[in-house]
Amino acid sequence: MNFFENLKMALSSIAANKMRAILTMLGIIIGICSVITITMLGDTISKGVMNALSASGMNTIDCYVTIKDYDEDKTYHRTSDDFISLDQLNTLFDMYPGQYTLKQDMTLSDGTILNSYNETIHFTSKGVFDGYFDYNKFQLISGRFPSFRDSREMKYAALVSDIFVKQYFRDTIDPIGQTITLNLEKGSAQEFTIVGVYRYQEFKHGRFEPGTKEIDKVTPIYVPYTVASKLKNEPEISFSYVELLWNPQYDNLVLEKQLRDYFDKEYETNKDFKVEVFNYAAEMKIFSIIIKVITFIITAIGAISLIVGGVGVMNIMLVSVTERTREIGIRKALGATSLTIKNQFVTEAIIICLIGGLLGIMFGFINGKIIEAIVHAVLNSNPEYKDVLGNVSVAPSFPAIIVSLIFSTLTGVFFGLYPAGKAAKMNPIDALRYD
What we know:
With about 425 residues, the protein is of the alpha+beta class. It has helices at about 5-15, 20-60, 85-95, 130-135, 150, 160-170, 200-205, 225-230, 250-265, 280-325, 325-335, 340-380, 385-390, 400-425, 430-435, and strands spanning about 60-65, 85, 100, 105-115, 120-130, 140-145, 155-160, 180-185, 190-200, 220-225, 240, 240-245, 275-280. The strands form 3 sheets. Strands 4, 5, 6, 7, 8, 9 and 10 form a 7-stranded mixed sheet that branches. It starts with a helix and ends with a helix.
């Protein structure tokens, strides 16, 4: 008897006992569905956590000044020469163009400005380097962000909010390139040229009191770090630590080594201090591995139900063998070999498990769509979560589907062999006498 005849007989037997077949498949369906669902949940959680960690600064490398060889009997005093200077950073960026951006920021001052309607607009101001905008995921509406070159060349460039534009210009003219005079509380009035407009997001930049009038909303204005430092009478710029954002086009481990080598060379003559480099991306890999291990363990626990389902298949196949004893005897009397009988029952067990596996995958897909709908509903109702977690998609893992199908097939083979072997060993005379 060939495979197709075995397949036809298996389907006929399943069709003749639909309810029993469905109940038999139930364990396999639940097992496969559990594996697919848990795998999807693990992947979704992993993506969400990785996105959240990335948004929290996992794409940064911290460089901080620390003691070389600590001696508890020695007193250490750091001077300006021991800090990381802006000149050192300028040299670093010239050596490796496009690989790093600097995140540092400093509060400048609160202030006021009068618009053409003689209305007073309040603002806060901050000095920043270009990496600050990437790190905080600013949404640029028009123009550009103040650049590192603006800081180098001490350009009085300003990035203002869309709210400030409405307050000052009333949407009558294009703000890019316009000059504004900011009256700083700490310092005299200063002229700045608007180079960009960003979208103000309350959950990110600060919430306003309910009922605050448009003209009374206070939003930050961002200027180059060096300009802010000059206006605060702090011309010497140096840092005990710096946060560098690395370009994802490069290998962060290579960039980490570059930084170590660069600062080791810069501080080789410093007797007491050195620069330590800490790469958050390496820590992020550890989180990823932990999540994958947890997902694997939970998936393995879910797969236990497949074994339970397999035992159910074996039990039903033993019942089927008993019920069809006379059929087996007739077939053997007509010349069917033991191998033919064995293949028939193994095929039937495989078909039951395979159909159960396919149904389990289908229900797993449905669970995935439900999970995805819930995730999107939560993210859409909480923009701050969406901004941090990003666009998290829920999709079944293709390897998990393949493994599930193979596993369900092997379950049919494994748990079908014993009943099939029992059927194959029957003596045709005894089988024909069976009532």
